[in-house]
From TrEMBL, chains A, B:
Any GO MF annotation of the entry: 2-hydroxychromene-2-carboxylate isomerase activity
Annotated protein name in UniProt: 2-hydroxychromene-2-carboxylate isomerase
Keywords noted in UniProt: Isomerase
Similarity-based family: Belongs to the GST superfamily. NadH family.
Organism for this UniProt entry: Pannonibacter tanglangensis
CDD domains: DsbA_HCCA_Iso (cd03022)
Catalytic activity as recorded in UniProt: 2-hydroxychromene-2-carboxylate = (3E)-4-(2-hydroxyphenyl)-2-oxobut-3-enoate
Length: 204, 204
C-alpha cells in the first residue's frame, strides 16, 4: 500500500512582497512535513483591476504601504533575508510568471522561483528583463532560449490566464495564498504553518 | 530603583473582527510578560472614508470578506471563542467606543471591552443599543447611567475624534494595531507576540 502524500498548492505573484517570504521557505517546510507542493504562479494585476485598483494596494493606500515595508524589514531580518525595495514597485513579473507556469512541474521550478524573488527583493534587480531571466535559467542548467520562446507562445499565455481564473474560482484575492487539496484557503505568509497543519489533519 | 515597565498601546475598533481576537487575550498576554497596557478605542470609519471606502473592505471586496469569515471561524475555534456573524456587519460601535475612551484608565475597562466584543461576535447582539451597553456596565459594577451620559458629552466626542487623529499620526490604517512606546507599529492579531518581543527588547 502506498501512502498518499497530502499536497499544498502555493499561489504566488512575482510582484508580491509577502510572496517572497513564503517562496524562500515553502519547499523546505513542505519537504520537512512530508507534503507535496504545487507551484502556482498567477497574476494579481487582473484581479486587482476588477476590484477597481490600478496598482498595488500598498501604493494606493500610503499608510498601508509604509507599514508593509517596515513589516517586511522586520520579517526579513528575522528570516535572515536581504530586502531591497524594487523600483518601480510592483515589478512587472509577467514573463517570469509565464516561464514558471510553463515549467511548474520541472525539477528546477522552485529554484527558479527563489532566484527571481531574490533578484527582485534581495538585490533590487528588474525582473521584467528577459536577459536577467535568461541568466537565472542558465544558472539552473535550463535551456534559457527555449524557455523564453515558450513563454511567448499563445499556449502559455492562455495557460497563465486560465491560472488567474482558477485562482479566482478558489477564492483567491491576494498573494501568497496556500490551498489544500480539499479547498481550504490560507492567505499570507503568516498562514503557511496553519495550511500545513490542515493538510496533515486529513491523513492522520 | 524602580524598574520601568514597558507599555503596549492597543488600538481597536469595536466593529473589527480581528480586534475581537486580540481584545480577548491581550490583557493576559501583557500581564504574563510584565507589560503595561493602554486601551485605545478608535474609529476606523473616518479613516476608511478618507480612503474612499464607504464600509468595511470585507464588504467592499466579497472574496476578501468570505475569506475573513472562514479565517475567523478557524481562529476562533483554535482560541476556544464563539463566533457569530453580526447583522449588520460592521456593527455601529460609536457609543461603546466613547464609553471605553472616557473610561480607558478605569480598572474595569478591559472587562468592558471584552464584554462588548463577546456580545457582538460571540452572541451576535446589537452593540449600538444603549440598553445592552448599560447592562454590561452594570454587570461590572460601573455607574451605567453616568457612563452613558458622559459618553454623550462634547468632551468625550471630541476626545474620541482626537484619538482617531492620533491613530493616523501613528500610521494606523486598520485594527487591531499595537504600538510600542518607541512608535513601532504592529497590525493584526497575528503580530501581538512580535509587538511584545519588541517592547521587551527595549528594557533587556
Amino acid at each position: 500500500m502506498t501512502l498518499q502524500r497530502p499536497k499544498l498548492s502555493f499561489w504566488f505573484d512575482f510582484g508580491s512582497t509577502y510572496s517572497y517570504l513564503t517562496a524562500m521557505r515553502i519547499e523546505t517546510v513542505a519537504r520537512d512535513r512530508g507534503l507535496d507542493l504545487d507551484w502556482r504562479p498567477f497574476l494579481l494585476g487582473p484581479i486587482f483591476n476588477r476590484q477597481g485598483w490600478s496598482t498595488s494596494p500598498f501604493n494606493l493606500y500610503p499608510a498601508k504601504g509604509r507599514y508593509m515595508w517596515r513589516d517586511m524589514e522586520r520579517l526579513c531580518e528575522e528570516a535572515g533575508l536581504p530586502l531591497v525595495q524594487p523600483d518601480p514597485f510592483p515589478q512587472n513579473g509577467l514573463i517570469a510568471a509565464r516561464i514558471a507556469h510553463a515549467n511548474r512541474r520541472a525539477e528546477w521550478v522552485g529554484a527558479f522561483v527563489r532566484a527571481v524573488f531574490m533578484a527582485e527583493f534581495g538585490e533590487g534587480r528588474d525582473i521584467s528583463d528577459p536577459a536577467l531571466l535568461a541568466g537565472l535559467l542558465l544558472d539552473l542548467g535550463a535551456d534559457a532560449r527555449a524557455c523564453l520562446a515558450e513563454a511567448d507562445s499563445i499556449e502559455v499565455k492562455i495557460g497563465l490566464r486560465a491560472a488567474v481564473a482558477e485562482a479566482e474560482t478558489l477564492g483567491i484575492f491576494g498573494a501568497p495564498s496556500i490551498v489544500t487539496e480539499d479547498g481550504e484557503l490560507y492567505w499570507g505568509n503568516d498562514r503557511l504553518e496553519d495550511a500545513v497543519e490542515w493538510a496533515l489533519r486529513i491523513v492522520t
